[in-house]
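Researcher: Following up on the earlier apo prediction. This time include the ligand. It's adenosine-5'-triphosphate, with the SMILES given after the sequence.
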Amino acid sequence: MGYDLHFNVIWRNWDKLWGGLLLSLELAVLSIGIGIVIGLTLAVAHVSGNRWVRGAIATYVEAIRNVPLILLVYLVFYGLPQAVDIRYGATTSFVATLSIYAGAYLVEVFRSGLEAIPQGQLDAGRAIGLTPWQRFAHVRLPAMTRITLPALSNTFISLFKDTSVASVIAVPELTWGAQWINLNTFRIVEAYLIATAMYLVTGYVLLFLLRRLERRFRIARHA
Amino acid sequence: MTEPLLAIRDLSKSFGTVQVLKSIDLSVNRGEVVSVIGPSGSGKTTLLRCVNFLESYDGGSITIDGVEVGYDEGRKPRGERALARMRAETGMVFQSFNLFPHLTAAGNVMLGLIKVRGKSKAEAHEIALHWLDRVGLSHRADALPAELSGGQQQRVGIARAVAMEPKILLLDEITSALDPELVGEVLEVVRGLAAEGMTMLMVTHEIAFARDASSRIVFMDAGTVAAEGPPAEFLATADDHPRLSAFLARFRASHF
Ligand SMILES: Nc1ncnc2c1ncn2[C@@H]1O[C@H](COP(=O)(O)OP(=O)(O)OP(=O)(O)O)[C@@H](O)[C@H]1O
Ligand SMILES: [Mg+2]
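Model: Understood. Below is the ligand-bound prediction.
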């Protein structure tokens, strides 16, 4: 008795999984990209802003961090178009949701990175006559990047896993591909085993590449 | 006319309700080396930081080459861009080096040359190598600050400041974070700059060095200039000044 594993059906539908994996990566890259813009902008606003700005940013961060991602996905995809006159596809909707979600986590990452820079280095930048923008670009940002890169890598890898939530609104990413195979061939174990393996391998490869990148950043560089 | 290069007149500065500088008058002529000594908390660092407006001041004036440092003609605080231009004219060397950790020794010297002085990368690199050579570090040009000893880092700090060709160099206890055996190499660089006519205002705890290298010594106490004069005279008459002689006595007791 028991369940015989038949992987043939998986290979026949391989494009669903492979295409799904590529879309998952694409979703993660887009979301971390937009999330970095949101996070960095708000972190700078937080560091240099007044009480009200800081309050507004803290509210956003807390709100997003305390709501499960899957609910945010439903709210943006089903709820928002009901409330306001706006239309978008499932993929766009998911990228927007995951970006806002990533942004909330990255504000904290960037904020602590910006605050970790010793005042003396900023003073040194002022003393040689750098303007505020130059100090930001050439003193704060590089120092912050070195401090935050590991946290940024970790965020990217967990975003990559979080893209599986997109399956609930039928975005054809990896988990959705596995579901499709399950529904159409009833090979549930094979489909999810292979999908799991694909998440694992991709996650390890990403981690390896990002750690190498971090090391690169620590190596000597001219102005 | 021999207007002093740096003229500080009736300068006052408070942090909150605490007044840390009280009607300071001090001038530094071109080519002069003026050393500032005094007990901890007497306002030496604050004074130096006011000169390049890393700290704002409340009353009085600071002029370099006749131009008020932090305020325009209507005594409105200068904008950040104008301040940046003013600051490029004064070099500063810090007690804790404050090198940019992501840049090499050469990169640290080059940053201001490229971004502030508008030099090309190649020009800036050449100037950086020249100054690193002057402080005895041309062989370490590609090292990151973390790979350098304290004395080497501080010499890069000096090269970074002087490469900008400032009108005046401000030095704040630049050897007090160093192990004793590294102090000499840094003071040697400063001595060389003094010999070449670099104008300097330096806070120091190295009384012997102040005596040998400076044109004048200033004793600050509780936010005021309590005594000043050429080194020999200054030290000879120290006994007439109870606070100064107490400071020197305490100083000698703890340092020798
Ligand atoms: N940013 C600041 N905010 C509030 N008070 C300050 C600040 N910086 C300095 N002070 C105070 O101003 C006074 C003068 O400090 P300053 O650092 O100028 O002294 P100093 O003579 O350089 O002392 P030291 O020899 O210890 O370096 C001290 O009482 C100090 O606590
Ligand atoms: Mg001090």
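Model: Residues B 44-45, 173 surround magnesium ion (ligand 2) (CB under 6 Å).
Researcher: Noted. I'll compare it with the apo version next.
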